Amino acid sequence: MIEQKLRSAADQLPTPETELEPIIHTAHQLTTPARSPRRKRAVALLLALLLLAGCAAGAVAYSFVPGYASYYFSDAAWISGRLDVQIPEQLGRSPFYEVLNIHTINRETPWYLGALFSRYKTVSIQYGTEGIEIWYNDGEPYDVHTILDCIYFEFGSTENELWRHIFPFTDEGIWCDEALDPDTYTSESYKDCLLQGGTLIRSWGNINDVLWIDEELKVCFMLGSSDYTTEELLTLAKELIDLNHPD
Amino acid sequence: MDHALARACFDRYSTGIYRYALSILKRPALAEDVLQETFLRLLTRPAPGLTLESSQAWLYRVARNLCFDILRKPTEEYTHAATVAPDEYGYLELIASLTPQEQELVTLKIVGNLTHREIARVLRITPSAAQKRYERAIQKLRETEESP
User: Which of B32, B65, B110, B141 to mutate to test the interface with A (most CBs of A within 10 A)?
Assistant: First the structure.
């Protein structure tokens, strides 16, 4: 209801007066090849290198505050091979959609240097199907392109001390809300948390999460979805555990 | 960049990007500037391999950086541009109770029609964080609406 109201109000926002043709004209002027002397190019290159070195030194000097840089890959097998974690092509009713590497970096590190200054790497895989969802605006249906039956499957090694910044477990393997990013979560956010057979189940609103630690692989796993129930996610967690422990 | 592709991007995304910039800057003239600069960058310095679909998150990311470049400047440098009051547009009034970060996320979803994954690309956060922050913001708005 509130989303319909927002969409309806957003449709009343003004439209821009800007037209593209003058921008194309400006772009054409800007991209006309300039006759730069070789010396100028060398100076520009040197300045760029100095700037890069400055960024690098700055990034290293900052004390750790988590931030994220994301890199996208579409090859599940490549990630599986590198992390010794088996990833299925299908999870429940959702096919593999996309895989993403998330680098935990110092907050002030530029995202494009994320891979260079990564402090901890996790993997986030999205399952689901591209499709059309029907939304309504003033009772009128319209199409929104989205991912249907979406599941986020995230995991990372527990051998890196930063893992608890991502996965909320204490040494005793229980809920640890100090680990959470205060920008995202508050301690009230997840009241429905319970530990069941080593699996942490939590829900907030219509979002369900299931987390577990694989002691043998030394990896923490998390499944999250608003399209699957916690019971369904628990079943999928069991399938993933079996897949990674065939014996 | 190919002008035909730029035109297609402009037709599809310019209104959303303008409204997104307007919701951040609250100044229509500056939002027009951001829109112009965003498409100038698309034409002169596009990311490699952009398609009509993949350019959406890229364009919003560029627009976002430009908005924050403006906001980082001392206020007196842009006070010449008239501000809109939140109650001037119903949408801005509706989201006024949210934090600026929540307003931005809701605007990307509602105005830009971006998926959580695309929002994650724009904001450089994890997709699940984008989804959760969005759900929380909507819940907050629902509670604000229901409160007497």
Answer: B110
d(CA B101, CA A75): 32
Q: Do A16 and B31 touch (CB under 8 A)?
A: yes
Enter the tokens of residue A234: 């628990």
As for the ipTM of the complex, it is: 0.89
Q: Copy the structure tokens of residue A127.
A: 């399952």
In the block, tokens 């006024």 appear at B96
Backbone φ and ψ for A193, nearest 5 degrees, come out as: -115, 135
B134 interfacial to chain A (CB closer than 8 Å): no
Candidates A242, A52, B43; CA nearest to A234 is A242
Q: What is the pLDDT along chain A (247 residues), one digit of tens a residue?
A: 788 899 999 999 999 998 888 888 888 777 665 555 566 677 777 777 776 765 555 544 444 445 555 555 555 555 556 667 888 889 999 998 887 777 777 766 776 677 777 888 888 888 998 887 776 555 666 666 778 898 999 888 888 877 776 776 655 545 544 444 444 444 444 445 566 666 777 766 667 888 888 888 888 898 988 889 888 998 999 999 988 888 7
